[in-house]
Amino acid sequence: MSTNGRYDTPADGGQYSVKDDTSPDGETSNAAHSANDLWQAFAASAGNAALRVVLTLAFALLVIVVLGQVSGIPAEAASMAASASSPPVDASSAQAASDDAATLASLPLSPIALSHPPQAADLASLRRGAAMFSTYCLACHAAGRVRFGQLRALGFSDAEIAATLNPSGAPLSGAMHAAMPAASAEKAFGRVPPDLSLAVREKGSAWLYTYLRSFYVDPNARMGANNVLVPDVAMPNVLAGLQGEQNAIFVRATQNASNTAEQTRKFVRFEAVAPGSMSAPAYDQAVAELVAYMAWMADPQSVERRRLGPWVVGFLVLFSFCGWGLMRSYWRQQP
Ligand code: HEC
């Protein structure tokens, strides 16, 4: 008979009846007893296994999200420290002074180390990056996978988008096309500037951050500028007004790989020749924000995802506790 309880109880109203739990006499000993039994019942039950799985999953998710949030920081810090010190120079730098500039320039450039951008993914940084991209990049490059209206996700109003971010006056539903037609760009630069929607996925943030800080004055280059990351680059140094002009110092380096001595040109450091409107740290920060915005362009859902993440994890944790409570109440009257 189970008229007064949730469980079917033996006809004699034995230990399963709810009456046992609520009877005033012997309540404490019953409670202690049943708590002990409860855990044994838990350990033996399949329900406990399911509960463990749910709790473990929720915990693992929590750990993944927390690690995801912080993991960037130590790596960034380490690489920033590394990029702050100038790259190592081998013994051959002693002969740099005697190097003939012309022969040095003809040597192949050995690859340079990439610098990682500092964190700049908050909305204010992304907004500044968006403004910079529209001002300095959209003239030549398209970002055809992104529509102007999507900039609302960064907190821009339609009026702001029209006034400052959309130089071509395209409709909000329109894709970000380059202001300069591809044919004229090819005529001017010899190459068509690539679409930058997915540049971060293709190259990585560190590559772009390094690229945009590595232009130097080169009178022999078609556009008067070259880049230590992309030798003989066709892109002009469009950010020179902000960064200022810099020369690049190279040395001759000899690489002894598998017994073949090969001469290369090794980048040592930059030397400022004309100041820009920004200090070096301010320029680095601005470029980091520009690259963060380009990362957003490659994955425009990221802002929404990051906003939702804590709620989802919170729900899972809450749900786990509810499940646990429910399980407890199911097994409460187990002997
Ligand atoms: C005046 C036109 C012009 C402007 C403005 C311009 N670029 Fe470029 N960009 C080019 C051209 C031309 C190339 C092709 C260079 C090459 O292939 O050598 C290029 C190439 C690139 C590449 C690819 C480099 C490679 O080797 O893969 C990236 C990334 C890039 N630009 C980023 C930017 C960013 C970011 C801005 C805005 C700050 C910008 N560009 C502004 C003309 C421009």
Characterization of the model:
The chain has twelve helices and six strands. By secondary structure, it is an alpha+beta fold. It has two domains: 1-85 and 329-335, no CATH class; 86-300, Cytochrome c-like domain (Cytochrome Bc1 Complex, Chain D, domain 2). It has a two-stranded antiparallel sheet with strand order 1-2. A hairpin with a 2-residue loop joins strand 5 and strand 6 (260-275). Helix 3 (46-84) runs antiparallel to helix 12 and helix 5 (123-136) crosses helix 11 (280-298). Bound molecules: heme C. Residues 136-137, 139-141, 189, 191, 193-194, 196, 199, 208, 211-212, 230, 233-236, 238-239 line the site of heme C.
CATH C-level label of the largest domain: Mainly Alpha
Compounds present?
heme C
CATH topology category name of the largest domain? Cytochrome Bc1 Complex, Chain D, domain 2
Q: How is the biggest beta sheet arranged?
A: 2 strands, antiparallel
Number of helices in the DSSP assignment: 12
Unreliable segments of 5+ consecutive residues? 1-28, 70-94
User: What is the end-to-end distance?
Assistant: 18 Å
> Which strands sit side by side, in order, in the main sheet?
1-2
How many strand units? 6
- In helices, the fraction of residues equals 40-55%
Relative strand content: 5-15%
What string gives the helices and strands in order?
HHHHHEHEHHHEEHEEHH
Rg from Cα: 32 Å
Structural class: alpha+beta
How many distinct domains? 2
Mean pLDDT: 81
Short summary:
48% of the residues lie in helices and 13% in strands. With 335 residues, it is α+β, with helices and mostly antiparallel strands.
